[in-house]
Specification:
extended, about 50% helix, disordered C terminus, mainly alpha, about 375 residues
Length: about 375
């Protein structure tokens, strides 16, 4: 910006405002560059760059000294981290007595116990049918008394068909004809104890004798089961009997054995054989009446579209698809084999009862204790 001073001092009384002159060249600013043309030499304005300095090609790593040793870390106790305070045992004991901590520990223990039960149940079900065994032990006192009376006096019983709830058999506590394993298991224990008592009366008691009686009775019932299953397999006889059903019916002979031993304990050999003959006939009659419906039934008939009566509940009578119903067709062949197997079971039970008990009976009835004194 330039002033024209001569114009401003024209007169004292006549002052004029100074004009601003915009002269780029006068201010010393650089002139605009000429237009680029074919004959104009190129000038970048910067000197040409020389070769790059050594060790600068590629990735540049600043302030890196690869020759120096790495810093040693401090892994000792404490270090640069804050040290945790040591818990006082008294404070820990008071904390464990807090109700919240005890509730949490109880809940955690219950969860662990539930998981353990599930694991044990799953592993046990692979080898032992626990759910099926639960059905055979679903009994009560009323059922046990009635079933014992039925085995001892089966001649007045009329209804031998097992009741069904839809397609599932009714539990033994609700059906007198259903097989169970409670009476056979308790009969086995009672037989072993009674055998030890009778051996003691004959001055032949010893722990080895009790062990022999228990092991022999168990071995014979296992042999009996293998014999029955092998016979059914060899004769190609298909029945609705399960293995546990056969075990239950085979275990009912302990009732005959106990009754015979009690007769021999009171009346000697005479009472033993009288009791054995009667209880054996009763047991054979009971087995024939109970097993014939399952052994003489053939393949299952087609199931109806709806349950009998149009609804569930109660038991399914003869018109329903169960192994005891009349809709089950008679087998085309093999009826004689089934009858022979039924007679074989009815005869072997009294024979095994005699074989396991005859050596325990004294030759004469024991004298009363008062008479001996």
């Amino acid at each position: 910006m330039n002033f024209n001073a001569s114009r401003n001092v024209a007169g004292a009384g006549n002052l004029r405002k100074a004009k601003r002159v915009s002269d780029v060249a006068a201010m010393g600013a650089p002139s605009p560059p000429p237009a680029f043309g074919p004959g104009t030499p190129y000038n970048a304005g910067f000197p040409p760059a020389g070769p790059p300095p050594p060790y600068q090609e590629g990735i540049q790593l600043d302030n890196q000294d690869f020759g120096s040793a790495p810093p040693t870390g401090n892994f000792g106790y404490g270090g640069s981290f804050p040290q945790s305070p040591i818990v006082n045992p008294a404070q820990l004991g008071s904390m464990l007595h807090q109700p919240v901590v005890q509730d949490m520990a109880m809940q955690y223990g219950n969860q662990l116990a539930a998981q353990g039960r599930e694991v044990v149940k799953r592993e046990l079900n692979k080898y032992v049918p626990v759910s099926r065994l639960r059905y055979y032990f679903a009994v009560d006192t009323r059922y046990v008394l009635k079933k014992l009376m039925l085995i001892m006096f089966p001649y007045t019983h009329k209804e031998w068909m097992v009741k069904y709830d839809q397609n599932t058999p009714v539990q033994p506590r609700d059906d007198l004809n259903a097989p169970d394993l409670y009476i056979p298991s308790m009969g086995y224990v009672t037989y072993v104890l009674l055998a030890g008592f009778m051996l003691g009366l004959q001055h032949r008691f010893s722990p080895e004798q009790i062990g022999m009686q228990a092991s022999s009775a168990l071995a014979y019932i296992i042999f009996e089961m293998i014999l029955y299953l092998f016979t059914l397999y060899i004769t190609s006889t298909n029945t609705s009997l399960k293995t546990l059903d056969l075990l239950a019916f085979s275990g009912y002979k302990y009732t005959v054995m106990i009754g015979s031993l009690l007769g021999g304990l009171i009346l000697g050999k005479t009472g033993y054989y009288c009791s054995l003959v009667y209880t054996s006939i009763a047991l054979s009659y009971f087995l024939v009446k109970t097993l014939r419906l399952q052994l003489l039934s053939g393949s299952q008939a087609p199931e109806p579209a709806a349950p009998y009566g149009g609804g569930g509940g109660g038991y399914t009578p003869y018109g329903a698809p169960n192994p005891y119903a009349e809709q089950w067709r008679k087998p085309a062949g093999g009826t004689k084999r089934r009858v022979y197997f039924l007679l074989f079971v009815a005869i072997t039970q009294p024979l095994l009862s005699w074989w396991l008990t005859y050596h325990l009976v004294p030759s004469a009835a024991p004298a009363p204790v008062a008479a001996q004194l």
